[in-house]
Protein 1
Amino acid sequence: MSSVKLVIFIPSIEGGGVEKNLYIIANYLSIKLKNEVYVITADKKNTDFFSKSVKIVTSKFLIPETNSRLIKYFISLILLLFFFLKNKEIAVLSFQANIYAIILCKIIGVKIIVRSNSSTKGWSNNIFKDFIFKFFLGKSEKVIVNSYALKNEFIKKFNLKSICIYNPFNKDEVSKLARVKFSLNFYNTRIKILRIINVARLTDQKDQLTLFRALNSIKEELDFRLLILGSGVNKNKLDDYIKENSLEKRIKLINYNRNPFKFIKKSEIFILTSLYEGLPNVLLEAISLKKFIISSDCPTGPREILLNGKGGFLFKVGDYKDLAQKIINYTLNKKKLNKKTIFAYKNLKRFDYNNSLKKYLFLINKYLLK
């Protein structure tokens, strides 16, 4: 039996789609592997979703809370180095700060697999960065991506072969959590309105302002309620837009909830407005609850999930007029468009929970623990 300890490297645990995958994969590996599984992170607060068999490695010192990823990267790299010096026989599965993790692992002679979770459009946008990423990503044992579109980006941009493993999506768990009851007068189901939801961090990447502009442009012809679940640096900017355009009764922002599914279930449309993604879990979750999807045609993921638009509407990234038109189109053709929702739902089998996890287990056993 190999004595190699598997270290999952994730400096910043922020409560989004990446973290959902992290918890599922870590918990699964801790059961299936005979090796010990550790998570190295600078975040102490978001670790309660890990099973007891997953060991958390974080700083023993009191560190002020920070939103700076770079600080968290530095802390976690120090933790990884000290963990290696103490244990020697380790291997790394990196979820974040991949280049930094690769450099350290190559220096200390540790095998590493990295997982890239979002389009290169968001993190490699000039010749110098392209060279750096191409060089160092090629030094890892394997690169895992979560969509075939992202796999193609890696080939075109870095001439680098990667392995696509879809996010481990558990439809039954989503269905179970969606049944939890809640009360929210803003979303009163007795009133005949169009209930729209967006679940995402409040950041430039998620581009909720495009959604706000689209709805503001059609507020005179459509009675709607938009619920936004999320937190982030753009909250004040979004609040200001709501007030400036008298949308207080139409749009509500609430902090990210660990069970967004109960809110999605009460909605009619899920709208994603991201500038770029990887494979957005939240679209899979909304489809599993049979909600109509309108998504930006951003790199990467939405087009793949919606099968080139057969499973929902795709609109041009950042184009609020196109989005507004798609929303109106939906309201005028609900019965006809239900076919798209059913089509998307029936094709969720591609994202089989167990199949994805078995692929992770196979790669780790083959490239890290052999």
Protein 2
Amino acid sequence: MSEFVGIMAAPVVAALVLVVMHGYLGGHVVRRGVIFVDIALAQVAAFGVAVALYFGAEVGTDAAWFAGLGATFVGAVLIAVTRTGGHKIPQEAYIGIIYAVFSAAMILVLTQVPHGSEEIRHLLVGAILWVTWSDVLKTAALYAILGGLLWWAHDRLTLISSDPELACTRGLRLRRWDFLFFAVLGTVVTSSVQIAGVLLVFTLLVVPTVMAYRRGRIGGVQQLIFVVLVGLLAVIVGAAASYILDVPTGATIVCVFGILLGAQVAVEALISARRSS
């Protein structure tokens, strides 16, 4: 037990820090109906990191972080300007295109990097097992600053996410506020993707929020509490399972989240069938 705590304490705390921030942002993403924006921005950040690796940097260094951040800001601009309003093409289509193009670009870049296939795996599933307490503290400090910015903009961002037409009538410029939101999301993703990988970052953003919505906890403190509790359960169970089975921690946590969501759907379906019979 003491060995498990010694090895897994920092990774578990890091994952929980990610859960809190992604849990808040996930509510906005789901309300906006742009479910894959996080994985798209994560992939854009991964492309930026890949470019840094091509020029000799290493994952986890300041150079890689700033390269990922710069690429993510480009992605934030692209996503902000593709808000389609009343047009027939949904914004999700553009987000999917951004994801596909930057995924292909990342692969092309990393094929020119020594051990490129290993770096692709790293960027997809992360290396959360090797996170240090220094990484945890730096990430928590950054998220605290971004959390203050989100708190300042909370009412306006919530209105835009819930009712963009009403936001327009109140004089809010959607693309400017969209860029602010996606820039914050991109900054969060840039930090978390090098720790947790693209797949876990996407899962942390979407799955707990979807589970909260299925329970009717839409917005507010109740949703965030539910998200944090679900994340706490998935992270601890996933970390324990990865330790026992000696398999990658990030991928295991993703699978645990999937199992929890599947169990929730199955239980709700069973309860509904019993009530209707």
